[in-house]
């Protein structure tokens, strides 16, 4: 598509708003007939005449005499026989009966055929025609002819056959006798016959009753044909047979006319006494006849709306009679149902509804409400009779009575009349010399659409005005009939307008020809392009006369053909308005008129010139300029008391005519769905069959009309004709005027100009007016206004082109069966398709999207595995017929799809790969237009992952060429939209990854490509393809995609691949995902103060991956920091955070990384690196130690809770624990749960958890750690430690005595030794235990060995005897501390044990044996050399101490029996160390 032909959807959308506005405006100007009659009461005159200078409104096309055989038979009867006549418009036949003979002949053309039926002996008294009910007769019998005689009722089959070329389906008519369908009339003479469109037959008898003729296929005990009286009860039937007629005194009022309203299912009957009866046939027309009203005094009803023509006073001395009655279609009125034509020319409009609809809304696409149930019959209004002497030239407001003497009666004398679709034909016999026809129809000039700047609700614009024409008539008018449109035209009209409920097309069984004829009631202006000229045939006593009503466009055409003076053409434009007349010129120029003859080039060119003539159509101007001028005073100043209106542009009649013409072409489509669902049940939308609403023939008809109009506009633009020529070289202020790249200039309607043409805001000043010094400010210059109008017309042209292409596409879809094409659509898309209107299809992005899906389905029909051709088979048609829906990019896309389909069925690997590359090359040229979701699925099936990665990335770049997704300075909404578009493309790539990984994803959107069966891949192949996708993705410069890719891979478990193939932006991504980017480490202080952070499990996943990345890259310091952050992450729920064991593992790994950092270079050099490494390592080891305390406390609390639950009666409350009465088990579990959440510092652990629950052993370990790490004051810690040791020992003594206390001392002391006094206060421990042992021994509570405490102290000091000996020596030297001789004796026994252990340990160390071995040596005989092995210094210390303590034993004020064993022990130890002799007793 060239640049000139490119369609901008924005311009089409704006033009669509104008068309919608125009359609709504035109509907609003079509009032209900009742409203129009009411408004006409206030008009100066309800009638007008046709201008003399114009071509005639009504013309006689042809006249011909009655068939000779009919005239001969009538003359043979001497004029005294029974003769009836009428017409059957359904079969294009007139009929006449003479006595018992019936004649039929063609009334719309000459064919010299007049078949005669004379199978009965009795004279024919009534004739009727009805549709044949289906399933009763053979298909050839389409209609039934009902012939009534005084004796019998006969049914005859009517068979219609067309001519050879099929153009005339009623070329031949034959009558088929049906002997079994004849019944007796039971002595009732029928006066008239009428039938419904569903085939019901009603007969009116001279006895005043209505009968129905029933026929069926079965005989049984019923006859195949029977007559049923519908209006008489049982008594009336009996009296008819029993009581002789001579005794019937009541006068009979026979029915002389019956008509049926097939839309409302009402039968109206008129009697000789001018009574009108109303009967209903039920909602569907199949119910028994029911009488609901009868109006006996029709003329006595007071008519509140009675009108008289002021020009004459009719003579009312003679009571008028009803000449005919006719139902009104719903298209004419919702509230008026029947019109009765009176003999004086007046028309009475009646209603069967008790209330009128003056206050109801009219117009719009909502359709008519449900019909009111008939309940009465009343006169609503009366239309005055038309004026006389129309041939003399009635003018507006005056009557011409030429040809009438002063004594003539000025009242019409109507012998017969005919009403149909708003047109009345009167047979006027008021002149005694000749009869004439008076034809009254709607004045089209009064229906002309108002300009866009005028209100549509004015009373004068809605008043009914009719135009009167007169034709002389030879003889008397017997019957009038419409010549209905041909079946082809009627079918077209029915398909276009049947869905518009206000057009009266309902399921009443009415033929298409009759239904389409009702459109004439809308007026000629809106249907000139669809229906031909209206024709009627008048059946008179002298023959047949065919007459035609010229439409306004026919009159205009004749004006162009006849070279009338220009003043007449100007008069035509003035009468119809510039917009309406310009629209008719456009229809002639574009040859849109439905006409019997072709429009020649001369007429078309003249019409085009008139369409572009500013003297006829005007120029674009400012609506407020006249208002501004009116505010000036005669002196040239301004009247300050008036409001100056704001000037707004109003375009010329050319633009108005284009909008009118376009809206009338699109009216049957615009707001109606393009697809419908056919099916049964309330769920048919989901389960029904989807088909095009319009048949292909109707869419082709409209497409041709629209393309003709668009072609004309394009040719005038290319030729620079009219306004196009004026502005072609001027240039647009924002782009090209003609080719639509500028602002949104698309409408000239008053209520839309300001929004659509806001770009033209220049203000110009006009020349001085009069003597005023002030200047009038005009927002637009004439040149600008002309440019705006051309731009608006160009937008409408684009809309027409787009509409024609939409119709072409729908026809193509329809040819390939919509149901088959949409079977792959999901429920949502099917529903959207069914709800899509033509307006949306043409003007909206949703419509464009659905059209693309339909084209995709159509292409699959050709290119699928079971396809019926190639892309080129259908793409040429699409590119030619709807290039805005099927662009060149779409063509390349479907070529790629075709290559993919071929690749899917190819076995050879090389060829398969080549086809995939070919498809990839096609799609690389048009990435923005491709449906990559489905195409990339096919590339996945072919394992061509290069296309799977590159195509979506190319499309993402095409959708966001400006990079709005990366710009955080723009509007957030714009940025979010750009990101969302890119993410949709990224999802295609990640979907392929998920598929390879085996992760299930959401189902993709409906595919135009059928998925192929994929072979199962082994693990190695999966890994290879995954790495290929990741490597291709990382090569892209799209960092937003990198983030999306990394995140998806982590979510589906491809962490190893992320670490292996991740790009340089992986670390920033992981840092941002963790919400706390790592900072560059520059000093030790920066690494030594990292608090706990609140991190979710989702963020922790990325932080953990970051740590793994640093470890793999041997960046140990950074890895240690990240691991520390993981270990310290906060959590409020145990399920969301790591366990304490996991935290311990994180810290342990962090310690390992910190240790590794001391052996490698981590970016820092020299002393700074060493100091940093040492500080980091100390920090991590300290945190790990505190965490271990926390784990131990939690385990102890869990054990405490379990023990308390098992033996609740024996549980003891903590010293500083829960309040009295509380359950210690619950408190312990709650505290343990708190410890599970987050890390605690050592102070919190001690004060809030360990101490309150008397976990003294752990308390001591924490105190020792705090003293060792320098976090606490040594003096305070020493005091607290001594107190804690005392509590621990007391706790052990209370639970297990001295043995338990010694065990605790060994276990805890060994962990705290070596240490200062605060860590292991030996003096306190020794004295506390020795006292307790002495007390328990003396009280007999426990047997305590002499060596237990001493050995426990030695074990706590890890075998170091000297500190223990010093502790005992210190206690013994202070008499105030140990005043008791018994306690001192016990201490001395322990000292003896310590000295022996010291000696054995020293000997074992020197001899290289264990203490046990040394004891064996000491217990045996050993030489002096062995004794000398012991270190002389240690031996001297031991011997000196033994000697000193012997003296101490002697000093004890105790019996010798108690002290002697201790004294002897010291002496023997001394001797064993000094003497070379044996120490067996030792």
Radius of gyration: 56 Å
User: How many beta-strand runs?
Assistant: 35
Share of helix, binned: 40-55%
Report strand %: 5-15%
Task: Characterise the protein shown here.
There is one protein chain. The protein is α+β, with helices and mostly antiparallel strands. It has 50 helices and 35 strands. The strands form 10 sheets. Strands 1-26-25-24-23 form a 5-stranded mixed sheet, with no helix packed on it. The chain has a 4-stranded antiparallel sheet with strand order 2-29-28-27, with no helix packed on it. A hairpin with a 4-residue loop joins strand 20 (338-342) and strand 21 (347-351). Helix 42 (1274-1312) crosses helix 43 and helix 46 crosses helix 47. The protein is elongated.
Features:
1482 residues, alpha+beta, five-stranded mixed beta sheet, four-stranded antiparallel beta sheet, 50 helices, 35 strands, 45% helix
Structure summarized in a few sentences:
With 1482 residues, the protein is an alpha+beta fold. It contains 50 helices and 35 strands.
Write the layout of secondary structure elements.
Elements: H1 9-28, H2 33-40, E1 47-49, E2 58-64, H3 68-76, E3 83-88, E4 93-98, E5 101-106, E6 116-117, E7 126-131, E8 141-148, E9 152-161, E10 172-184, E11 190-195, E12 201-205, E13 210-215, E14 225-229, H4 234-242, E15 255-261, E16 266-271, E17 276-280, E18 290-295, E19 322-327, E20 338-342, E21 347-351, E22 378-383, E23 414-420, E24 423-428, E25 435-442, H5 459-462, E26 466-473, E27 477-482, H6 487-497, H7 512-517, E28 534-540, E29 543-549, H8 552-562, H9 566-576, H10 578-589, H11 601-612, H12 614-617, E30 621-622, H13 625-630, E31 649-650, H14 653-666, E32 675-678, H15 684-687, E33 689-692, H16 696-718, H17 723-727, H18 753-756, E34 764-765, E35 777-778, H19 782-815, H20 818-821, H21 827-835, H22 838-843, H23 845-863, H24 871-881, H25 888-905, H26 909-925, H27 932-941, H28 945-959, H29 972-997, H30 1019-1035, H31 1039-1051, H32 1055-1061, H33 1066-1073, H34 1084-1087, H35 1097-1112, H36 1116-1127, H37 1140-1157, H38 1166-1206, H39 1224-1237, H40 1242-1250, H41 1256-1269, H42 1274-1312, H43 1322-1339, H44 1348-1356, H45 1361-1373, ...
Parallel strand pairs: 1-26
Antiparallel strand pairs: 2-29, 3-4, 4-5, 5-6, 7-8, 8-9, 9-10, 11-12, 12-13, 13-14, 15-16, 16-17, 17-18, 19-20, 20-21, 21-22, 23-24, 24-25, 25-26, 27-28, 28-29, 30-31, 32-33, 34-35
Helix pairs in contact: 1-14, 1-19, 8-10, 9-10, 10-11, 10-14, 14-19, 16-19, 24-25, 25-26, 26-28, 27-28, 27-29, 28-29, 28-30, 29-30, 29-31, 33-35, 35-36, 36-37, 37-38, 38-39, 38-40, 38-41, 41-42, 42-43, 42-44, 43-45, 44-46, 45-46, 46-47, 46-49, 46-50, 49-50
């Amino acid at each position: 598509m060239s640049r000139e032909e490119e369609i901008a959807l924005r311009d089409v959308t704006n033009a669509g708003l104008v068309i919608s506005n125009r359609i709504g405006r035109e509907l609003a100007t079509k009032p209900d007939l009742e409203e129009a009659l009411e408004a006409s009461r206030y008009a100066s005159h309800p009638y007008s005449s046709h201008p003399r200078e114009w071509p005639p409104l009504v013309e006689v096309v042809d006249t011909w005499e009655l068939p000779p055989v009919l005239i001969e038979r009538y003359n043979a009867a001497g004029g005294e026989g029974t003769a009836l006549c009428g017409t059957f418009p359904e079969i294009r036949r007139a009929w006449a009966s003479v006595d018992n003979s019936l004649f039929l002949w063609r009334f719309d053309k000459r064919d010299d055929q007049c078949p005669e039926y004379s199978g009965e002996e009795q004279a024919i008294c009534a004739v009727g025609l009805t549709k044949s009910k289906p399933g009763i007769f053979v298909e050839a019998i389409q209609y039934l002819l009902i012939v009534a005689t005084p004796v019998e009722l006969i049914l005859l089959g009517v068979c219609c056959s067309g001519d050879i070329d099929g153009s005339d389906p009623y070329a031949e008519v034959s009558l088929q006798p049906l002997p079994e369908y004849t019944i007796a009339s039971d002595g009732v003479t029928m006066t008239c016959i009428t039938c419904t469109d569903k085939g019901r037959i009603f007969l009116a008898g001279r006895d005043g009753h209505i009968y129905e003729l029933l026929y069926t296929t079965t005989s049984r005990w019923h006859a195949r044909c029977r007559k049923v009286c519908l209006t008489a009860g049982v008594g009336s039937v009996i009296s008819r047979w029993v009581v002789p007629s001579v005794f019937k005194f009541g006068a009979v009022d026979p029915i002389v006319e019956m008509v049926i309203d097939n839309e409302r299912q009402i039968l109206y009957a008129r009697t000789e006494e001018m009574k009108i009866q109303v009967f209903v046939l039920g909602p569907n027309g199949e119910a028994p006849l029911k009488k609901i009203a009868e109006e006996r005094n029709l003329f006595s009803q007071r008519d509140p709306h009675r009108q008289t023509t002021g020009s004459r006073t009719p003579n009312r001395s003679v009571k008028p009679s009803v000449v005919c009655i006719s139902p009104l279609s719903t298209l004419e009125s919702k509230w008026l149902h029947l019109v009765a034509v009176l003999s004086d020319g007046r028309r009475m409009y009646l209603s069967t509804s008790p209330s009128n609809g003056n206050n109801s809304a009219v117009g719009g696409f909502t359709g008519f409400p449900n019909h009111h149930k008939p309940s009465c019959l009343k006169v609503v209004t009366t239309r005055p009779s038309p004026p006389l002497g129309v041939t003399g030239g009635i003018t507006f407001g005056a009557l011409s009575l030429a040809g009438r003497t002063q004594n003539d009666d000025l009242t019409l004398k109507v012998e017969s009349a005919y009403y149909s679709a708003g047109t009345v034909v009167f047979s006027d016999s008021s002149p005694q010399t000749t009869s004439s026809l008076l034809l009254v129809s709607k004045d089209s000039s009064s229906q002309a659409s108002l300009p866009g700047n005028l209100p549509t609700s004015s009373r004068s614009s809605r008043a009914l005005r009719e135009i009167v024409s007169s034709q002389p008539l030879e003889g008397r008018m017997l019957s009038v009939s419409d010549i209905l449109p041909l079946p082809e035209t009627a079918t077209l009209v029915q398909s276009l307008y049947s869905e518009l409920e206000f057009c009266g097309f309902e399921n009443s069984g009415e033929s298409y020809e009759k239904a389409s004829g009702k459109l004439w009631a809308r007026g000629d202006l809106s249907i000139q392009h669809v229906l031909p000229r209206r024709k009627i045939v008048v059946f008179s006593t002298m023959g047949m006369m065919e007459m035609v009503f010229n439409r306004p466009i026919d009159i205009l055409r004749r004006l162009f053909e006849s070279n009338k003076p220009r003043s007449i053409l100007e008069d035509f434009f003035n009468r119809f308005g510039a917009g309406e007349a310009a629209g008719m010129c456009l229809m002639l120029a574009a040859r849109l008129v439905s006409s019997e003859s072709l429009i020649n080039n001369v007429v078309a060119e003249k019409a085009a010139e008139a369409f572009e003539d500013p003297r006829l159509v005007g120029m674009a101007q400012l609506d407020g300029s006249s208002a501004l001028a009116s505010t000036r005073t005669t002196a040239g100043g301004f009247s300050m008391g008036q409001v100056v209106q704001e000037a707004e542009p109003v375009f010329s009649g050319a633009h108005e005519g284009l909008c009118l013409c376009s809206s009338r072409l699109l009216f049957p489509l615009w707001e109606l769905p393009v697809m419908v669902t056919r099916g049964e049940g309330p769920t048919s939308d989901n389960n029904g069959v989807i088909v095009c609403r319009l048949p292909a023939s109707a869419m082709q008809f409209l497409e041709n009309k629209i393309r003709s109009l668009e072609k004309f506009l394009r040719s005038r633009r290319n030729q620079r004709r009219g306004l196009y020529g004026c502005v072609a070289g001027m240039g647009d202020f924002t782009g090209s005027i003609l080719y639509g790249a500028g602002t949104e200039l698309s409408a000239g309607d008053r209520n839309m100009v300001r929004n659509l043409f806001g770009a033209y805001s220049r203000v110009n000043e006009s020349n001085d007016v009069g003597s005023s010094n002030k200047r009038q400010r005009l927002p637009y210059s004439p040149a600008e206004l002309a440019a705006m109008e051309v731009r608006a017309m160009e937008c409408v042209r684009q809309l027409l082109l787009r509409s024609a292409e939409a119709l072409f596409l729908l026809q193509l879809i329809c040819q390939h069966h919509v149901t088959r094409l949409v079977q792959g659509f999901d429920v949502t898309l099917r529903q959207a398709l069914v709800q899509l209107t033509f307006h949306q299809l043409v003007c909206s992005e949703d419509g464009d999207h659905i059209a693309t899906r339909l084209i995709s389905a159509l292409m699959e029909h050709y290119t699928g595995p079971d396809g019926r051709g190639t892309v080129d088979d259908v793409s040429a048609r699409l590119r030619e017929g709807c290039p805005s829906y099927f662009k060149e990019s779409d063509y390349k896309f479907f070529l790629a799809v075709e290559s993919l389909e071929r690749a899917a069925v190819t076995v050879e690997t090389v060829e398969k790969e080549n086809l995939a590359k070919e498809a990839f090359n096609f799609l690389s040229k048009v990435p923005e237009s491709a449906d990559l979701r489905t195409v990339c699925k096919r590339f996945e099936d072919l394992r061509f992952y290069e296309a799977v990665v590159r195509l979506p990335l190319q499309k993402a770049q095409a959708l966001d060429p400006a990079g709005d997704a990366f710009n955080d300075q723009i509007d957030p909404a714009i940025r979010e939209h750009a990101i969302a578009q890119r993410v949709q493309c990224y999802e295609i790539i990640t979907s392929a990854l998920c598929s390879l990984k085996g992760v299930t994803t959401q189902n993709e959107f409906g595919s135009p490509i059928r998925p192929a069966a994929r072979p199962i891949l082994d693990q190695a192949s999966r890994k290879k393809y995954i790495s290929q996708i990741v490597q291709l993705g990382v090569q892209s410069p799209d960092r937003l995609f990198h983030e999306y890719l990394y995140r998806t891979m982590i979510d589906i478990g491809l962490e190893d691949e992320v670490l292996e193939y991740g790009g340089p932006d992986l670390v920033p991504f992981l840092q941002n995902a963790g919400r706390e980017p790592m900072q560059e480490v520059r000093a030790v202080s920066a690494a030594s103060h990292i608090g706990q952070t609140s991190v979710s499990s989702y963020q922790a996943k990325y932080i953990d991956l970051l740590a793994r990345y640093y470890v793999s890259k041997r960046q140990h310091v950074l890895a240690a920091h990240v691991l520390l952050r993981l270990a310290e992450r906060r959590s409020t729920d145990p399920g969301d955070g790591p366990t304490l064991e996991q935290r311990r593992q994180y810290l342990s790994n962090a310690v390992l990384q910190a240790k590794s950092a001391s052996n490698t270079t981590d970016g820092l050099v020299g002393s700074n690196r060493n100091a940093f490494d040492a500080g980091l390592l100390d920090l991590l080891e300290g945190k790990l130690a505190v965490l271990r305390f926390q784990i131990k406390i939690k385990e102890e609390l869990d054990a405490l809770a379990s023990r308390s639950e098992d033996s609740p009666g024996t549980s003891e409350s903590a010293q500083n624990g829960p309040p009295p009465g509380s359950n210690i088990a619950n408190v312990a579990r709650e505290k343990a749960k708190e410890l599970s959440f987050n890390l605690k510092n050592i102070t919190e652990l001690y004060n809030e958890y360990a101490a309150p629950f008397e976990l003294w052993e752990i308390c001591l370990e924490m105190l020792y750690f705090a003293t060792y790490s320098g976090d606490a004051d040594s003096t305070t810690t020493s005091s607290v430690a001594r107190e804690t040791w005392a509590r621990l020992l007391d706790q052990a003594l209370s639970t297990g005595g001295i043995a338990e206390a010694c065990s605790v001392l060994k276990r805890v002391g060994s962990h705290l030794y070596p240490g200062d006094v605060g860590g292991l206060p030996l003096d306190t421990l020794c004295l506390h235990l020795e006292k307790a042992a002495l007390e328990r021994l003396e009280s007999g509570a426990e047997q305590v060995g002499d060596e237990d405490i001493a050995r426990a102290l030695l074990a706590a000091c890890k075998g170091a005897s000297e500190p223990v000996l010093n502790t005992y020596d210190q206690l013994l030297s202070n008499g105030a501390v140990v005043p008791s001789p018994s306690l001192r004796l016990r201490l001395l026994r322990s000292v003896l044990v310590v000295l022996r252990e010291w000696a054995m340990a020293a000997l074992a160390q020197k001899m290289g044996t264990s203490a046990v071995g040394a004891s064996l040596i000491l217990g045996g005989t050993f030489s002096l050399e062995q004794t000398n092995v012991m270190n002389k210094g240690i031996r001297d210390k031991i011997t000196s101490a033994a000697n000193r303590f012997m003296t101490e034993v002697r000093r004890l004020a105790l019996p010798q029996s108690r002290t002697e064993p201790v004294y002897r022990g010291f002496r023997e130890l001394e001797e064993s160390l000094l003497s070379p002799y044996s120490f067996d007793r030792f």
